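Good day; I would like, with your permission, to put a structural problem before you. A protein sequence and the structure tokens that stand for its backbone fold form the material at issue. I would ask you to consider whether the tokens describe a fold that such a sequence might reasonably adopt. I set the record out below, with my sincere thanks for your time.
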Amino acid sequence: MMYEHAKRVGEKLVEERGVQLYSMIMGAEDFSFYAEQMPVAFFMIGVGNQTIKSSIKGLHSPHFIIDEDALPVGASLHAAVAITYLDQHAMPAHSLPT
């Protein structure tokens, strides 16, 4: 459910061609514990820039150069996913506990 939501929002934000399914990886994350408690989606934004020679280094390399132009896109995506989810799943004010 959350995957489909984040994918839809991403496709509206950066167009469908800008959203790609990432290969499964084995990471060291506690993310699965969050997923047991609430709807979640793990998504990444591309912060490497192939036109900058030194940015082809791996993400955890001290020589990696981040493409800072991607940061506003990432922030927008995270905010849009959260806001649209909350808008779609908000409880009506009259049903909130008093």
